[in-house]
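Weekly puzzle thread! Below is a chain. First person to post its structure in token form gets bragging rights.
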Amino acid sequence: MVEKILSIVVIAKNEGENIARCLSSLGRDKVPGWRKEVVVVDSLSSDNTLEQAKKFSHKIIQPQPSWPHSAGAGRYLGCLNSQGGYIFCIDADMRLKKGFLEKGIDFMEEHPEAAAVAGIGQEVYIEKEAIGARNKNMYLRNLKEVEEVDYLGGAALFRKEPLKEVGYFNPFLYAHEELEVCQKMRLAGGKIYTIPVEMTVHYTYAAAGMKRFKKQLESNRFIGIGQMLRLSLANGFLWENVFRFRRILLSLFLVVLAAILAPVFLATANRAGLLTIAAGIVFLLFYLAVVKKNLLKAVLSLGKWIIILVMVARGFFRTIRKRRQYPAKVKMVKRGSLE
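Winning reply:
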């Protein structure tokens, strides 16, 4: 009889305050008839993440310092070093809700066409150790029944074979690696689902806050959006991704258009054109000031948006290497046993 193994890939970087909570939640969720393998991929943390992770009997691996580090690279290496027939991916700043793994596997067993499935994810916004706003479902709002979807977020349960067939996650993508891998699995005939079962709690900073923006800049998230758009030119999902990132693309188009027309209007002394551009900027600032209820916040928001657009453009023109070019040899920090 073939042993049933569920692999859980946990990606972490400087998550010393969170990883113990995450790993503890994984240990509490038993799946009858299945043994669990937890693979922690630490992207060279400089805090006490490793010390916290070592307290649990799990496999811990690290990429080499000279390799590109990203969430996609962490998931890629974690999958390569997993032996389970199913792989559950989760971030170290998340907590698993008890019962999802069993129900997720049951769903996958009953639906052989399913390549991946996720449940209800809750976001808890934390500022200065105080819990702020909550978003009860980061995938679908008011999820009450099974839904077929285009892609899943950072936490999801994957069937290993279709995931392996497409080469696992792209280690050279700085963001949206889960979107890219889901699109590749769909292209190969797999289906992606969400089920009305509580799955994770994600502890993070408020979506519009500067702390979250800083974290996104550090992880090159916006460059990753540009990379994803570039890949869309060849993967058959161009219009789907254009629609998904339509706000960014429209904003980028308007900024580029204004940057091209402004010198022309200056050279030709076209007052009407210059006034139109100036009026557009003033209107945008006025709109943001009303929304933010503060002029300074409006200026900061506009500055953030310009930085985002620059990063997206950089990502689009960045060459993306093939998965197989990413080194597969990892540093084995700890070799744990199956649960």
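Puzzle host: Confirmed. Bonus trivia for everyone else. The chain has twelve helices and eleven strands.
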